[in-house]
Amino acid sequence: xxxxxxxxxxxxxxxxxxxxxxxxxxxxxxxxxxxxxxxxxxxxxxxxxxxxxxxxxxxxxxxxxxxxxxxxxxxxxxxxxxxxxxxxxxxxxxxxxxxxxxxxxxxxxxxxxxxxxxxxxxxxxxxxxxxxxxxxxxxxxxxxxxxxxxxxxxxxxxxxxxxxxxxxxxxxxxxxxxxxxxxxxxxxxxxxxxxxxxxxxxxxxxxxxxxxxxxxxxxxxxxxxxxxxxxxxxxxxxxxxxxxxxxxxxxxxxxxxxxxxxxxxxxxxxxxxxxxxxxxxxxxxxxxxxxxxxxxxxxxxxxxxxx
Length: 307
Known about the structure:
Blueprint: H1 25-37, E1 47-49, H2 58-71, E2 73-77, H3 85-94, E3 112-114, E4 134-137, E5 151-158, E6 162-163, E7 166-169, H4 171-181, H5 183-189, E8 195-197, E9 200-202, E10 205-208, E11 211-213, E12 216-218, E13 224-226, E14 236-237, H6 241-255, E15 262-264, E16 271-274, E17 278-281, E18 284-285, E19 293-299
Parallel strand pairs: 1-2
Antiparallel strand pairs: 2-16, 3-19, 4-17, 5-16, 5-19, 6-18, 7-15, 7-17, 8-11, 8-14, 9-10, 12-13
Protein backbone atom coordinates (compact mmCIF):
# COMPACT_ATOMS: atom_id res chain seq x y z
CA UNK A 1 0.00 0.00 0.00
CA UNK A 2 2.12 2.91 -1.29
CA UNK A 3 5.24 1.72 0.58
CA UNK A 4 8.00 4.26 1.06
CA UNK A 5 11.40 2.58 1.53
CA UNK A 6 13.38 5.77 2.16
CA UNK A 7 15.45 5.88 5.36
CA UNK A 8 14.52 7.99 8.35
CA UNK A 9 16.68 10.97 9.22
CA UNK A 10 17.23 12.44 12.69
CA UNK A 11 14.52 15.07 12.20
CA UNK A 12 11.80 12.39 12.35
CA UNK A 13 12.90 11.49 15.85
CA UNK A 14 15.26 8.68 14.95
CA UNK A 15 12.49 6.06 14.94
CA UNK A 16 13.06 2.84 13.06
CA UNK A 17 11.20 2.60 9.78
CA UNK A 18 9.33 5.34 7.94
CA UNK A 19 6.35 7.11 9.56
CA UNK A 20 5.14 8.27 6.14
CA UNK A 21 4.82 4.68 4.89
CA UNK A 22 1.18 3.72 5.26
CA UNK A 23 2.23 0.13 5.97
CA UNK A 24 4.64 1.03 8.80
CA UNK A 25 2.23 1.44 11.68
CA UNK A 26 4.86 1.26 14.46
CA UNK A 27 7.00 4.04 12.98
CA UNK A 28 3.86 6.11 12.38
CA UNK A 29 2.63 5.77 15.97
CA UNK A 30 6.04 6.60 17.46
CA UNK A 31 6.48 9.63 15.20
CA UNK A 32 2.91 10.82 15.77
CA UNK A 33 3.31 10.71 19.54
CA UNK A 34 6.54 12.68 19.40
CA UNK A 35 5.12 15.23 16.94
CA UNK A 36 2.04 15.94 19.04
CA UNK A 37 4.10 16.20 22.23
CA UNK A 38 6.10 19.02 20.63
CA UNK A 39 3.30 21.16 19.20
CA UNK A 40 4.18 24.87 19.08
CA UNK A 41 1.55 26.66 21.14
CA UNK A 42 2.24 30.16 19.87
CA UNK A 43 4.14 32.01 17.18
CA UNK A 44 6.23 33.67 19.88
CA UNK A 45 7.67 30.30 20.91
CA UNK A 46 8.92 29.88 17.34
CA UNK A 47 10.54 33.32 17.25
CA UNK A 48 14.29 33.88 17.51
CA UNK A 49 15.80 37.35 18.06
CA UNK A 50 18.74 38.07 15.77
CA UNK A 51 21.38 40.73 16.28
CA UNK A 52 22.34 40.79 12.59
CA UNK A 53 20.79 38.41 10.01
CA UNK A 54 23.84 38.95 7.78
CA UNK A 55 26.13 37.43 10.41
CA UNK A 56 24.39 34.93 12.67
CA UNK A 57 26.03 33.98 15.93
CA UNK A 58 26.46 30.22 16.52
CA UNK A 59 23.69 30.34 19.13
CA UNK A 60 21.30 32.16 16.78
CA UNK A 61 21.97 29.73 13.95
CA UNK A 62 21.46 26.75 16.25
CA UNK A 63 18.17 28.18 17.53
CA UNK A 64 16.89 28.79 13.99
CA UNK A 65 17.87 25.33 12.75
CA UNK A 66 16.48 23.58 15.83
CA UNK A 67 13.03 25.15 15.53
CA UNK A 68 12.89 24.49 11.81
CA UNK A 69 13.94 20.86 12.31
CA UNK A 70 11.16 20.33 14.85
CA UNK A 71 8.38 22.40 13.27
CA UNK A 72 9.46 22.96 9.62
CA UNK A 73 9.43 26.71 10.27
CA UNK A 74 10.92 29.41 12.44
CA UNK A 75 10.21 33.12 12.83
CA UNK A 76 12.84 35.73 13.51
CA UNK A 77 12.94 39.29 14.76
CA UNK A 78 15.79 41.62 13.82
CA UNK A 79 16.74 45.31 13.58
CA UNK A 80 17.26 44.95 9.81
CA UNK A 81 14.47 47.14 8.42
CA UNK A 82 16.12 48.56 5.29
CA UNK A 83 15.42 47.66 1.66
CA UNK A 84 18.31 45.20 1.34
CA UNK A 85 17.56 42.04 -0.64
CA UNK A 86 21.09 40.79 0.01
CA UNK A 87 19.99 40.15 3.59
CA UNK A 88 17.52 37.51 2.46
CA UNK A 89 20.05 35.71 0.30
CA UNK A 90 22.78 35.79 2.97
CA UNK A 91 20.46 34.60 5.72
CA UNK A 92 19.45 31.68 3.53
CA UNK A 93 23.07 30.79 2.77
CA UNK A 94 23.85 30.55 6.48
CA UNK A 95 20.95 28.12 6.91
CA UNK A 96 21.89 25.81 4.03
CA UNK A 97 19.58 27.39 1.45
CA UNK A 98 21.65 27.76 -1.72
CA UNK A 99 19.63 26.91 -4.82
CA UNK A 100 17.29 29.83 -5.43
CA UNK A 101 14.30 29.21 -7.66
CA UNK A 102 14.60 32.18 -10.00
CA UNK A 103 11.01 32.19 -11.21
CA UNK A 104 10.04 34.47 -14.10
CA UNK A 105 8.49 37.12 -11.84
CA UNK A 106 11.51 37.36 -9.53
CA UNK A 107 14.18 40.02 -9.93
CA UNK A 108 17.46 39.15 -11.63
CA UNK A 109 18.96 38.17 -8.26
CA UNK A 110 16.23 35.57 -7.77
CA UNK A 111 14.51 37.47 -4.93
CA UNK A 112 10.89 38.57 -5.39
CA UNK A 113 9.74 41.91 -3.93
CA UNK A 114 6.17 41.15 -2.83
CA UNK A 115 4.24 44.38 -3.11
CA UNK A 116 1.13 45.60 -4.89
CA UNK A 117 1.95 46.02 -8.58
CA UNK A 118 -1.33 47.23 -10.00
CA UNK A 119 -0.72 48.24 -13.61
CA UNK A 120 3.00 47.42 -13.31
CA UNK A 121 3.83 44.62 -15.75
CA UNK A 122 2.82 40.94 -15.84
CA UNK A 123 3.09 40.45 -12.07
CA UNK A 124 0.01 42.62 -11.58
CA UNK A 125 -2.15 39.74 -12.82
CA UNK A 126 -1.02 37.39 -10.04
CA UNK A 127 -2.61 37.45 -6.60
CA UNK A 128 0.58 37.71 -4.45
CA UNK A 129 1.13 41.12 -6.09
CA UNK A 130 -2.32 42.40 -5.14
CA UNK A 131 -3.84 43.31 -1.78
CA UNK A 132 -6.32 40.43 -1.92
CA UNK A 133 -6.45 37.50 0.48
CA UNK A 134 -4.60 34.33 -0.52
CA UNK A 135 -6.01 30.97 0.52
CA UNK A 136 -4.06 28.04 1.97
CA UNK A 137 -1.22 26.88 -0.26
CA UNK A 138 2.38 25.81 -0.45
CA UNK A 139 4.64 27.72 -2.82
CA UNK A 140 5.43 26.29 -6.26
CA UNK A 141 2.52 23.84 -6.35
CA UNK A 142 2.55 24.29 -10.16
CA UNK A 143 6.20 23.21 -10.49
CA UNK A 144 7.47 19.83 -11.76
CA UNK A 145 9.10 17.52 -9.17
CA UNK A 146 12.65 18.53 -10.15
CA UNK A 147 11.78 22.14 -9.26
CA UNK A 148 9.87 21.44 -6.06
CA UNK A 149 10.10 24.34 -3.63
CA UNK A 150 11.59 22.86 -0.47
CA UNK A 151 12.55 26.00 1.43
CA UNK A 152 11.39 29.60 1.64
CA UNK A 153 12.25 32.88 3.34
CA UNK A 154 9.80 35.74 3.70
CA UNK A 155 11.33 38.95 5.10
CA UNK A 156 9.25 42.00 6.03
CA UNK A 157 10.52 45.46 5.15
CA UNK A 158 7.17 47.25 5.61
CA UNK A 159 3.81 45.84 6.70
CA UNK A 160 0.51 47.09 5.35
CA UNK A 161 -1.36 49.88 7.09
CA UNK A 162 -3.85 47.23 8.19
CA UNK A 163 -4.33 43.53 7.53
CA UNK A 164 -1.93 41.25 5.72
CA UNK A 165 -1.39 38.72 8.54
CA UNK A 166 -0.36 35.16 7.72
CA UNK A 167 -1.60 31.85 9.08
CA UNK A 168 0.93 29.03 9.19
CA UNK A 169 0.58 25.26 9.50
CA UNK A 170 3.36 22.69 9.47
CA UNK A 171 2.52 20.42 6.54
CA UNK A 172 3.51 17.38 8.63
CA UNK A 173 0.65 18.26 10.99
CA UNK A 174 -1.74 18.49 8.04
CA UNK A 175 -0.61 14.99 7.04
CA UNK A 176 -1.04 13.79 10.62
CA UNK A 177 -4.58 15.15 10.90
CA UNK A 178 -5.58 13.69 7.55
CA UNK A 179 -4.14 10.27 8.37
CA UNK A 180 -5.91 10.32 11.73
CA UNK A 181 -9.17 11.02 9.91
CA UNK A 182 -8.65 8.17 7.42
CA UNK A 183 -5.40 6.71 6.00
CA UNK A 184 -7.26 6.21 2.71
CA UNK A 185 -7.29 10.00 2.30
CA UNK A 186 -3.49 10.10 2.46
CA UNK A 187 -3.27 7.22 0.00
CA UNK A 188 -5.50 9.10 -2.46
CA UNK A 189 -3.48 12.31 -2.20
CA UNK A 190 -0.21 10.44 -2.77
CA UNK A 191 -1.33 9.41 -6.25
CA UNK A 192 0.82 10.81 -9.06
CA UNK A 193 -2.24 12.31 -10.72
CA UNK A 194 -4.08 13.56 -7.63
CA UNK A 195 -3.77 17.27 -8.50
CA UNK A 196 -3.23 18.88 -11.89
CA UNK A 197 -2.49 22.53 -12.53
CA UNK A 198 -3.61 23.36 -16.08
CA UNK A 199 -1.21 24.94 -18.56
CA UNK A 200 -0.68 28.68 -18.40
CA UNK A 201 -0.83 30.38 -21.78
CA UNK A 202 0.08 33.80 -23.03
CA UNK A 203 0.15 35.56 -26.39
CA UNK A 204 3.12 33.41 -27.42
CA UNK A 205 1.38 30.11 -26.64
CA UNK A 206 2.01 27.71 -23.74
CA UNK A 207 4.10 29.55 -21.15
CA UNK A 208 3.96 26.69 -18.64
CA UNK A 209 2.69 23.19 -19.45
CA UNK A 210 0.09 21.41 -17.34
CA UNK A 211 1.60 19.83 -14.24
CA UNK A 212 0.19 16.78 -12.48
CA UNK A 213 1.48 15.29 -9.26
CA UNK A 214 0.70 14.18 -5.73
CA UNK A 215 -0.24 16.39 -2.81
CA UNK A 216 1.94 14.42 -0.39
CA UNK A 217 5.22 12.79 -1.41
CA UNK A 218 8.33 11.52 0.34
CA UNK A 219 11.76 12.40 -0.99
CA UNK A 220 14.88 10.24 -1.15
CA UNK A 221 15.86 11.25 2.40
CA UNK A 222 12.51 10.31 3.88
CA UNK A 223 11.27 13.91 4.19
CA UNK A 224 7.61 14.72 3.60
CA UNK A 225 6.81 17.27 0.89
CA UNK A 226 3.41 18.86 0.19
CA UNK A 227 2.12 20.65 -2.90
CA UNK A 228 -1.31 22.13 -2.38
CA UNK A 229 -3.58 25.04 -3.13
CA UNK A 230 -7.06 25.69 -1.78
CA UNK A 231 -7.97 27.80 -4.78
CA UNK A 232 -10.82 26.51 -6.91
CA UNK A 233 -9.82 28.08 -10.24
CA UNK A 234 -6.95 26.86 -12.41
CA UNK A 235 -6.82 23.51 -10.64
CA UNK A 236 -8.11 20.05 -11.55
CA UNK A 237 -8.50 17.29 -8.97
CA UNK A 238 -8.53 13.63 -9.98
CA UNK A 239 -12.13 12.79 -10.74
CA UNK A 240 -12.78 9.85 -8.44
CA UNK A 241 -14.63 9.37 -5.16
CA UNK A 242 -11.49 8.74 -3.09
CA UNK A 243 -9.80 11.98 -4.17
CA UNK A 244 -12.96 14.04 -3.75
CA UNK A 245 -13.40 12.69 -0.21
CA UNK A 246 -9.75 13.34 0.66
CA UNK A 247 -9.82 16.91 -0.64
CA UNK A 248 -13.05 17.66 1.22
CA UNK A 249 -11.61 16.25 4.43
CA UNK A 250 -8.39 18.26 4.08
CA UNK A 251 -10.35 21.46 3.44
CA UNK A 252 -12.47 20.83 6.54
CA UNK A 253 -9.40 20.15 8.67
CA UNK A 254 -7.72 23.36 7.54
CA UNK A 255 -10.86 25.32 8.38
CA UNK A 256 -11.32 23.71 11.79
CA UNK A 257 -10.85 26.02 14.80
CA UNK A 258 -9.00 23.17 16.53
CA UNK A 259 -6.29 22.92 13.86
CA UNK A 260 -2.84 23.85 15.26
CA UNK A 261 -2.61 26.97 13.10
CA UNK A 262 -0.36 29.87 14.07
CA UNK A 263 -1.16 33.47 13.18
CA UNK A 264 1.63 35.99 12.69
CA UNK A 265 1.72 39.62 11.64
CA UNK A 266 5.20 40.34 10.32
CA UNK A 267 6.61 43.69 11.39
CA UNK A 268 9.69 45.44 9.93
CA UNK A 269 12.77 43.27 10.39
CA UNK A 270 10.74 40.12 11.05
CA UNK A 271 10.66 37.10 8.80
CA UNK A 272 9.75 33.47 8.26
CA UNK A 273 12.13 30.67 7.34
CA UNK A 274 10.41 27.40 6.46
CA UNK A 275 10.46 24.10 4.64
CA UNK A 276 7.57 25.45 2.54
CA UNK A 277 4.84 24.95 5.11
CA UNK A 278 1.18 25.66 4.44
CA UNK A 279 0.41 29.37 4.65
CA UNK A 280 -2.19 31.94 3.69
CA UNK A 281 -2.50 35.73 3.75
CA UNK A 282 -5.26 38.07 4.86
CA UNK A 283 -6.35 40.91 2.60
CA UNK A 284 -4.80 44.24 3.48
CA UNK A 285 -5.00 48.01 3.04
CA UNK A 286 -1.85 49.88 2.06
CA UNK A 287 -0.49 53.21 3.12
CA UNK A 288 0.14 54.85 -0.31
CA UNK A 289 3.21 56.61 1.08
CA UNK A 290 4.68 53.41 2.58
CA UNK A 291 3.24 50.42 0.71
CA UNK A 292 3.64 46.90 2.06
CA UNK A 293 6.93 45.28 0.98
CA UNK A 294 8.25 41.81 1.70
CA UNK A 295 11.14 39.95 0.10
CA UNK A 296 10.49 36.34 -0.84
CA UNK A 297 13.21 33.82 -1.62
CA UNK A 298 12.22 30.32 -2.73
CA UNK A 299 14.68 27.44 -2.77
CA UNK A 300 15.06 23.95 -4.15
CA UNK A 301 16.77 23.09 -0.84
CA UNK A 302 15.36 22.38 2.60
CA UNK A 303 16.70 24.24 5.60
CA UNK A 304 19.83 22.51 6.90
CA UNK A 305 19.62 20.04 9.77
CA UNK A 306 21.09 21.11 13.13
CA UNK A 307 24.80 20.35 13.49
